[in-house]
Amino acid sequence: MRPLTDCHAHTELSYCADGVLTIEVYRAVLDDPGCIIARQALTNHGFQAYFPPDIAWSWEFLDRPALFDRHVTRGDERLLAFKEELENCRDDRLIFGVEVELMGDGRLTISDALRAEAQLLLGSLHVMPRAYHKGYAPAQAIESFFAYLRDLAASGIDVIAHPFRWLRESDVPVPQECVEETVAIAKAHGLALELSARSRGEPAAALIKECAAAGVPLALATDAHSLAEVGRLQPVVEQIERAGFTIDRVPLFDGRRLPSR
Ligand SMILES: [Zn+2]
Ligand SMILES: [Zn+2]
């Protein structure tokens, strides 16, 4: 089988991840001969690096981006310390990434200085900023989703992470045209689209088929937050097989940003 990259996983630096998830835990799993992952990206949440837990979990920074400027030193220091820890391992299987989102003013939750340091940027939508939110009816939710997605795709990220999670969590059905438009946006910006082992009820088969047809690379992801999820990429391989492909026949993202970015 071709060497696979897990493009998305969290360590103890993320508040929502298990405190036992050190870099060493990931390295030990990579060393296991049964592990199908050859390269491991560690992509902690930008907003959790920059903001203390009370602000992070209130999500108020999305609508008050000035908060980001106030906490920029804190986050830069935490992310740089993590990068240094990663580099000290001298293990080229590891990739330093950050999972970021758009704030209401269209900026990402990462500073320009750290953006230049990161090898990989995942762009996510967890909570919709008010500036993008057009309403709760399905048609309005889809309109909000694409307004956000277009700005996110143009922001300099490499991968759109769990693309349909927000729609699913908002109980909005994801029609085929929505998958097609998402793939078209990724293609226009030269981005990869994530296929996550954590997806539940998201249209994985439609996403795989559209990406394969359009030549848009899939970014395989455990999105590990717990010990049980570390190295567990097999569910993603099975999603690909269920969609009628083999892992060797789909375009895959190798986890490292293009030099042109
Ligand atoms: Zn996420
Ligand atoms: Zn994540």
Write the layout of secondary structure elements.
Layout: E1 4-6, H1 23-31, E2 37-45, H2 46-50, H3 53-58, H4 66-88, E3 94-101, H5 112-117, E4 120-124, H6 138-153, E5 159-160, H7 165-169, H8 176-188, E6 192-196, H9 204-214, E7 218-221, H10 234-242
Parallel strand pairs: 1-2, 2-3, 3-4, 4-5, 5-6, 6-7
Helix pairs in contact: 6-8, 8-9
This protein binds zinc ion (2 copies).
Descriptive overview:
The protein has helices spanning 23-31, 46-50, 53-58, 66-88, 112-117, 138-153, 165-169, 176-188, 204-214, 234-242; strands at residues 4-6, 37-45, 94-101, 120-124, 159-160, 192-196, 218-221. It is an alpha/beta fold. The chain has one domain (4-249): Metal-dependent hydrolases (TIM Barrel, Alpha-Beta Barrel), CATH 3.20.20.140. Strands 1-2-3-4-5-6-7 form a 7-stranded parallel beta sheet. Helix 1 (23-31) links the parallel strand 1 (4-6) and strand 2 (37-45). Helix 6 packs parallel to helix 8 and helix 8 packs across helix 9. The longest helix is centred in the first third of the chain and has 23 residues, at 66-88. Residues 99, 124, 126, 161-162 line the site of one zinc ion.
